[in-house]
């Protein structure tokens, strides 16, 4: 009897959205509001930006991460208990310590990333690094169990793993930022004790002129662009699949599952290409809004290839739809002619 009640309780818990991830998303929404208030009422700045801008951005990003995984786990039909525990560990071991450390340092008015100024700052950054590694591993593990799910919608069956793979690649860009810059490496080689090791900028020190809201560098390359773009493939690619399914109700050319699946693959290819493009641009020291001719050519080539693939998929689908309509018309015409011929 006790075992039966336990199983019923487990089904009750796992039949709804993942609780810890859902509550985490709600907490991130509240934190984003608090940080937004801090942006208005707290005049302190760090590297030319409000001390509350970073926790605001991370709260929004973590909220999107948490609610997306909660939705994905809710869609799973198998391995739900394993996914529940993986999601819970991601909240407790990744999101919570990461956002807590960032907010704590923001309240102190000191950098959270790459900060080795004091023993406390070093410890905080080490905690963040460990949490980031754990987050990558938990996301990878959840991705494996989400990929093996059986899904009725074939387009979504492709969108989830493709979005996860690109998102993991985007998360991995963060590790490039922890490497010493050439100047820092030279200082370390001379035995200097540095207060900053690592940077998100390429070609100039961190803290230069930045874009509104995002804070991305406008005078140098910025690895955060590729980090952001790749990370949110977790939301973008499944949203493409959902959008195509909704559009299929109005446009017959999208009615075929094979067509929608092919378009999801094309979209994922283009999104992965975009992530790689902005990473390549940043690594060459170029700001997002100041691409050189080579970067523009690569962007145009990528855009043209994606557009051509999408047009090809739609053309093939349109031909199939026309062929089916013509076939149905012939069958209907033959059926209508049969009674008169018999008479």
UniProtKB/TrEMBL annotation:
Keywords: Membrane, Transmembrane, Transmembrane helix. The chain crosses the membrane at residues 21-40, 52-71, 83-104, 124-148, 155-177, 225-248, 260-282, 294-316. It comes from the Bacteria. This is Uncharacterized membrane protein YhaH (DUF805 family). The lineage of its organism: Bacteria, Bacillati, Actinomycetota, Actinomycetes, Streptosporangiales.
């Amino acid at each position: 009897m006790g075992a039966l009640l336990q199983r019923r309780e487990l089904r009750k818990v796992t039949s709804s959205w993942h609780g810890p991830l859902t509550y985490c998303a709600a907490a991130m929404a509240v934190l984003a509001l608090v940080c937004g208030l801090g942006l208005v009422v707290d005049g302190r700045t760090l590297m030319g930006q409000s001390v509350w801008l970073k926790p605001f951005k991370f709260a929004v990003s973590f909220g999107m991460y948490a609610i997306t995984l909660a939705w994905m786990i809710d869609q799973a039909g198998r391995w739900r208990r394993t996914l529940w525990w993986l999601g819970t560990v991601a909240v407790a071991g990744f999101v919570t310590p990461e956002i807590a450390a960032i907010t704590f340092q923001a309240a102190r008015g000191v950098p959270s990333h790459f900060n080795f100024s004091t023993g406390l700052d070093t410890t905080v950054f080490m905690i963040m690094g460990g949490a980031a590694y754990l987050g990558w591993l938990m996301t990878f593990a959840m991705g494996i169990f989400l990929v093996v799910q059986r899904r009725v919608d074939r387009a979504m069956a492709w969108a989830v793993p493709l979005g996860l793979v690109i998102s993991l690649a985007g998360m991995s860009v963060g590790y490039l930022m922890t490497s010493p810059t050439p100047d820092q490496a030279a200082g370390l080689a001379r035995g200097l004790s540095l207060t900053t090791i690592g940077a998100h900028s390429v070609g100039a020190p961190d803290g230069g002129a930045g874009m509104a809201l995002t804070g991305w560098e406008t005078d140098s390359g910025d690895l955060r662009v590729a980090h952001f773009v790749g990370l949110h493939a977790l939301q973008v690619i499944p949203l493409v699949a959902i959008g195509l399914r909704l559009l299929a109700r109005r446009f017959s050319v999208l009615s075929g599952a094979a067509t929608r699946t092919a378009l999801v693959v094309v979209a994922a290819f283009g999104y992965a290409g975009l992530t790689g493009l902005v990473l390549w641009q940043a690594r060459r020291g170029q700001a997002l809004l100041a691409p050189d001719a080579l970067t523009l050519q690569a962007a145009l080539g990528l855009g043209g290839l994606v557009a051509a693939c999408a047009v090809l998929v739609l053309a093939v689908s349109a031909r199939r739809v026309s062929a089916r309509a013509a076939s149905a018309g012939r069958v209907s015409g033959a059926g209508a002619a049969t009674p008169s011929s018999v008479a």
